[in-house]
């Protein structure tokens, strides 16, 4: 299940997910290349820094994606597709890359335990308190995954 994120709301989503994301680029043989980056949104553009190999891939093939994994307690990851622009030389390690977001979605994480899907910022429903020992009810113990 996916939920579209309007680009004007992207900054609010990134604030909830935090600055660390995974940047996906592809090499000359169309093999994926994933690296962790710190990204921030400035005037509607994502700004990040990456190493020499990532920069060269983004310069040659600017269609990129960023993935923010689901934060604890949330059932959705944030995925942003965008167009990268490598500032400075492509072989300058640690140099800046800007990414113009084209589309963004919240993508549901698989869950074996529940079909409930919480969005960022939604509170978990209160857990049922353990039964009173004198009630005759047995506590339900969830199996370890």
Helix content: 10-25%
The SS-based structural class is mainly beta
Major sheet details: 8 strands, antiparallel
Q: Give the strand content.
A: 35-45%
Give the number of DSSP strands.
8
CATH architecture designation: Roll
User: Would you identify the regions where 5 or more consecutive residues have pLDDT less than 50?
Assistant: 125-133, 135-145
The CATH class designation is Mainly Beta
> And the CATH topology?
Pnp Oxidase, Chain A
CATH superfamily: Electron Transport, Fmn-binding Protein, Chain A
Head-to-tail CA distance between termini: 23 Å
Order of helix and strand elements from N to C terminus:
EHEEEEHEEE
The tally of domains stands at 1
Overview of the structural elements:
- This protein is mostly beta strands and 145 residues long.
- It has one domain (2-110): Electron Transport, Fmn-binding Protein, Chain A (Pnp Oxidase, Chain A, Roll).
- 12% of the residues lie in helices and 38% in strands.
- It has two helices and eight strands; from the N terminus they run E-H-E-E-E-E-H-E-E-E.
- It has helices at 10-17, 52-60; strands at 2-4, 20-26, 32-38, 40-42, 45-49, 63-68, 76-86, 96-108.
- Strand 4 and strand 5 (45-49) form a beta hairpin.
- It starts with a strand and ends in a 37-residue tail after the last strand.
- The model is unreliable at 125-133 and 135-145 (pLDDT under 50).
